[in-house]
Amino acid sequence: MEKCIFCMVARGEMSAKMVFENEHVVAFDDIAPQAPVHTLVIPRTHYASMSDSVPVDVLSAVFAAVPEVAAIKGVSDSGYRVIVNNGVDANQTVGHLHVHILGGREMSHGMVNFEGK
Ligand code: 5GP
Ligand code: ZN
Q1: Does pLDDT of 104 surpass 80?
Q2: What is the pTM of this model?
Q3: Distance from residue 12's CA to the centre of ligand 1 (Å)
Q4: Residue 71 φ/ψ, nearest 5 degrees
Q5: Is the CB of 112 under 6 A from ligand 1?
Q6: pLDDT, tens digit, for every residue of 61-97?
Q7: CATH-assigned architecture of domain 5-103
Q8: Which residues are 39's β-sheet partners?
Q9: Which residues have a Cβ under 8 Å from the Cβ of 54 and sit 6 or more positions away?
Q10: Strand order from edge to edge, sheet including 18-21
Q11: Are strands 80-83 and 25-29 parallel, antiparallel or unpaired?
Q12: Which of 14, 65, 83, 90 is deepest in the core (most CB within 10 A)?
Protein backbone atom coordinates (compact mmCIF):
# COMPACT_ATOMS: atom_id res chain seq x y z
CA MET A 1 0.00 0.00 0.00
CA GLU A 2 1.94 2.91 -1.35
CA LYS A 3 0.21 5.71 0.56
CA CYS A 4 -0.55 3.93 3.82
CA ILE A 5 1.26 5.87 6.55
CA PHE A 6 2.12 2.78 8.57
CA CYS A 7 3.46 1.01 5.47
CA MET A 8 5.59 4.12 4.96
CA VAL A 9 6.86 3.87 8.55
CA ALA A 10 7.63 0.18 8.03
CA ARG A 11 9.55 0.98 4.84
CA GLY A 12 11.45 3.77 6.58
CA GLU A 13 9.88 6.42 4.35
CA MET A 14 8.20 8.23 7.24
CA SER A 15 10.03 9.01 10.46
CA ALA A 16 8.87 7.46 13.71
CA LYS A 17 10.45 6.79 17.08
CA MET A 18 11.35 3.14 16.53
CA VAL A 19 11.21 0.88 19.56
CA PHE A 20 11.62 -2.61 18.10
CA GLU A 21 11.76 -4.31 14.74
CA ASN A 22 12.29 -7.73 13.27
CA GLU A 23 11.58 -9.26 9.89
CA HIS A 24 7.84 -9.45 10.55
CA VAL A 25 6.92 -6.41 12.66
CA VAL A 26 7.82 -2.83 13.49
CA ALA A 27 7.06 -1.07 16.79
CA PHE A 28 7.16 2.69 17.21
CA ASP A 29 5.86 5.29 19.61
CA ASP A 30 2.43 6.77 18.91
CA ILE A 31 2.59 10.33 17.59
CA ALA A 32 -0.14 11.44 20.04
CA PRO A 33 0.51 9.39 23.18
CA GLN A 34 -2.44 8.74 25.48
CA ALA A 35 -0.25 7.42 28.30
CA PRO A 36 3.42 7.82 29.33
CA VAL A 37 4.07 4.67 27.29
CA HIS A 38 2.08 4.43 24.06
CA THR A 39 3.70 2.26 21.42
CA LEU A 40 2.20 0.68 18.32
CA VAL A 41 3.11 -2.72 16.90
CA ILE A 42 2.36 -3.31 13.23
CA PRO A 43 3.03 -6.09 10.77
CA ARG A 44 5.38 -5.05 7.96
CA THR A 45 2.83 -6.41 5.49
CA HIS A 46 -0.33 -4.38 4.99
CA TYR A 47 -3.57 -5.72 6.47
CA ALA A 48 -6.38 -3.25 6.97
CA SER A 49 -7.53 -4.71 10.27
CA MET A 50 -8.06 -7.94 12.19
CA SER A 51 -10.93 -8.59 9.75
CA ASP A 52 -8.61 -8.65 6.73
CA SER A 53 -7.91 -12.42 6.71
CA VAL A 54 -4.65 -11.94 8.55
CA PRO A 55 -2.54 -15.13 8.44
CA VAL A 56 -1.96 -16.71 11.81
CA ASP A 57 1.81 -16.35 11.53
CA VAL A 58 1.39 -12.60 11.10
CA LEU A 59 -0.92 -12.39 14.10
CA SER A 60 1.55 -14.48 16.06
CA ALA A 61 4.44 -12.23 15.15
CA VAL A 62 2.53 -9.09 16.11
CA PHE A 63 1.38 -10.42 19.48
CA ALA A 64 4.72 -12.10 20.23
CA ALA A 65 6.32 -8.68 19.91
CA VAL A 66 4.04 -7.16 22.57
CA PRO A 67 5.92 -8.44 25.67
CA GLU A 68 9.23 -7.62 24.01
CA VAL A 69 8.13 -4.05 23.42
CA ALA A 70 6.72 -3.83 26.96
CA ALA A 71 10.09 -4.92 28.33
CA ILE A 72 11.95 -2.36 26.23
CA LYS A 73 9.56 0.36 27.43
CA GLY A 74 9.99 -0.75 31.06
CA VAL A 75 6.38 -1.67 31.81
CA SER A 76 6.59 -5.47 32.05
CA ASP A 77 6.26 -5.43 35.82
CA SER A 78 4.03 -2.39 36.26
CA GLY A 79 1.59 -3.65 33.63
CA TYR A 80 0.12 -2.33 30.44
CA ARG A 81 -3.04 -2.40 28.37
CA VAL A 82 -3.14 -3.90 24.86
CA ILE A 83 -5.78 -2.52 22.53
CA VAL A 84 -6.72 -3.18 18.92
CA ASN A 85 -9.28 -0.82 17.46
CA ASN A 86 -10.99 -2.67 14.65
CA GLY A 87 -13.25 -0.91 12.19
CA VAL A 88 -15.70 1.95 12.35
CA ASP A 89 -17.43 1.35 15.69
CA ALA A 90 -14.04 0.99 17.39
CA ASN A 91 -12.90 4.30 15.85
CA GLN A 92 -9.99 2.75 14.00
CA THR A 93 -8.38 5.75 12.31
CA VAL A 94 -5.41 4.18 10.52
CA GLY A 95 -6.28 1.35 8.15
CA HIS A 96 -3.19 -0.76 8.77
CA LEU A 97 -3.52 -3.35 11.52
CA HIS A 98 -1.87 -2.12 14.71
CA VAL A 99 -1.77 -3.03 18.37
CA HIS A 100 -1.60 -0.27 20.96
CA ILE A 101 0.52 -0.86 24.07
CA LEU A 102 -0.35 1.64 26.80
CA GLY A 103 1.30 1.89 30.18
CA GLY A 104 3.29 3.94 32.62
CA ARG A 105 0.26 4.90 34.66
CA GLU A 106 -2.78 3.18 36.10
CA MET A 107 -5.52 2.74 33.52
CA SER A 108 -9.21 3.34 34.05
CA HIS A 109 -11.23 0.42 35.40
CA GLY A 110 -13.62 0.49 32.46
CA MET A 111 -12.20 -0.49 29.11
CA VAL A 112 -14.59 1.52 27.00
CA ASN A 113 -15.85 5.08 26.93
CA PHE A 114 -18.92 5.67 24.83
CA GLU A 115 -18.56 9.47 25.02
CA GLY A 116 -22.29 9.79 25.51
CA LYS A 117 -23.11 8.27 22.13
P1 5GP B 1 -6.40 3.87 15.87
O2 5GP B 1 -7.27 5.01 16.26
O3 5GP B 1 -6.47 3.59 14.38
O4 5GP B 1 -6.54 2.64 16.70
O5 5GP B 1 -4.92 4.34 16.17
C6 5GP B 1 -4.12 5.03 15.28
C7 5GP B 1 -3.01 5.64 16.08
O8 5GP B 1 -1.99 6.03 15.19
C9 5GP B 1 -3.43 6.88 16.87
O10 5GP B 1 -3.18 6.66 18.26
C11 5GP B 1 -2.56 7.98 16.27
O12 5GP B 1 -2.12 8.90 17.25
C13 5GP B 1 -1.42 7.21 15.65
N14 5GP B 1 -0.83 7.85 14.49
C15 5GP B 1 -1.49 8.40 13.43
N16 5GP B 1 -0.61 8.85 12.52
C17 5GP B 1 0.63 8.57 13.01
C18 5GP B 1 1.94 8.81 12.50
O19 5GP B 1 2.15 9.36 11.42
N20 5GP B 1 2.98 8.40 13.28
C21 5GP B 1 2.77 7.78 14.49
N22 5GP B 1 3.87 7.43 15.17
N23 5GP B 1 1.54 7.53 14.99
C24 5GP B 1 0.49 7.93 14.26
ZN1 ZN C 1 -0.22 -0.26 5.39
Answers
A1: yes
A2: 0.96
A3: 16
A4: -65, -45
A5: no
A6: 999 999 999 999 999 999 999 999 999 999 999 999 9
A7: 2-Layer Sandwich (3.30)
A8: 29, 101
A9: 43, 47, 97
A10: 18-21, 25-29, 37-43, 99-103, 80-83
A11: unpaired
A12: 65
